[in-house]
Design brief:
alpha+beta, Cytochrome p450, about 45% helix, globular
Length: about 400
């Protein structure tokens, strides 16, 4: 056990489910890497994996650690707003076929062509702030990616406000009291859009999804819905939390001043935010072969969560891992996953974040939180990490 952990009682480390854990789970990750890097939780019925080498292996070796949790058979009649049966919950060869359907729309060159429009949208939201005072999440980092992915999907502008709400529904941070009603509304909405595109296709992503075939068959209703849900989440949540986490860190470490003076550091700063405060906490897998991780035998048929956010703070992989260094080189984080499931929306999230931070760094030289960080309201999800609101003041 590290010296830092020896001097810190277990009771002093925020545990999963607490507000402080959702705001910053890194002390818990650190403790688990040192004391139980692979362990089985009887309460959750799941194996937890914390070290970089183990997480990377779980994410990469799909023949041992399958992504088919919550898998839905093709042509299932049930249409629900879920990621089950999408690229994120399938293995090759189906995963490969599904990914090809939209991969051309998410290549770096295809995404790069969107830069002028992304800049226009970002400017629109940024100029709406008064004297640099704003709720950065609700006024900027939420509407920016929602607008971009909605335009790509072909969602009417009048419906885009609902998209963040539905995205929360999928990642598990929605209001449980209205979950059933919201799920039904989301399912009905997506099904109606898909049916409309079948009759009247356009140039948007939903039309591409509806027209696509796998092994000579059109996508089932469930697959089409799951595709739309995945693109909504991949094109929305990652950027929202990446930008929100960036501004929290920039306020703490006065990094915006450095970027204002040297904009060329923005790309490396984004990579360090991705490593230090990963917007995706972890990914789920199921063991389909008996295996071993850090000396622990994992039986067949076990659920696992590979803690990406912990792997990105692994002291064995990253020198001075608990230091926020916006010029860190090299920076081989796995914030966007690893292997065949490398996040499809990674180029989009990087570009949106780069455009946004370039505009902010050009206009402002500093940022401070209007409330203490500990008083922020976290996104209560084990899948993604961020805050619901971020009151800030940007200074020139």
């Amino acid at each position: 056990m590290s010296g830092q952990l020896k001097n810190k009682k277990l009771s002093e480390i925020s545990q999963p489910g607490s507000k402080s854990w959702f705001l910053d789970a890194s002390p818990w990750y650190k403790m688990m890497r040192a004391t139980a890097p692979v362990f089985h939780s009887l309460r959750m019925g799941m194996w937890h994996v914390f070290l970089y080498s183990d997480v990377e292996r779980v994410l990469t070796q799909f023949s041992t650690y399958s992504s088919q949790w919550g898998y839905v058979e093709r042509n299932a009649s049930s249409v629900v707003p879920t990621l089950a049966g999408s690229m994120i919950t399938t293995d090759p060869p189906l995963h490969t076929k599904l990914r090809k359907i939209v991969s051309k729309s998410f290549t770096p060159s295809s995404i790069g062509a969107l830069e002028p429009r992304i800049k226009e949208i970002a400017n629109q939201f940024l100029t709406g702030s008064k004297n640099g005072i704003m709720d950065f999440i609700s006024e900027f980092s939420e509407p920016l990616p929602v607008t971009v992915i909605a335009e790509m999907l072909g969602i009417p502008p009048k419906d885009r406000v609902k998209f963040k709400w539905w995205s929360d529904l999928v990642i598990g941070s929605a209001n449980p009291e209205t979950l059933e009603r919201d799920s039904a509304e989301f399912s009905h909405y997506l099904s109606a859009i898909i049916a409309e595109r079948k009759k009247h296709p356009t140039e948007d992503l939903i039309s591409s999804i509806v027209a696509s075939e796998i092994d000579g068959e059109k996508l089932s209703p469930q697959e089409a819905v799951s595709f739309c849900v995945l693109l909504l989440v991949a094109g929305n949540e990652t950027t929202t939390n990446l930008l929100g986490n960036a501004i929290r860190l920039f306020a703490k470490y006065d990094s915006l001043k450095q970027l204002h003076e040297k904009p060329s550091m923005i790309s490396s700063a984004i990579e360090e935010v991705l490593r230090f405060a990963s917007p995706v906490r972890g990914m789920f897998r199921v063991s389909v072969k008996e295996s071993e991780l850090s000396g622990r035998k994992i039986p067949i048929g076990q659920s696992l969560i590979a803690w990406i956010a912990s792997a990105n703070r692994d002291e064995k992989k990253f020198p001075d891992a608990d230091s926020f260094d916006i010029v860190r080189t090299p920076n081989h984080h796995i914030a966007f996953g690893h292997g065949i499931h490398l996040c499809l929306g990674a180029p989009l999230a990087r570009l949106e974040s780069k455009v946004a931070l370039q505009l902010l760094a050009e206009k402002y030289s500093g940022v401070k939180l209007k409330v203490p960080d500990a008083q922020l309201t976290p996104v209560r999800s084990t899948v993604v990490g961020g805050v619901q609101h971020l009151p800030v003041e940007f200074t020139r």
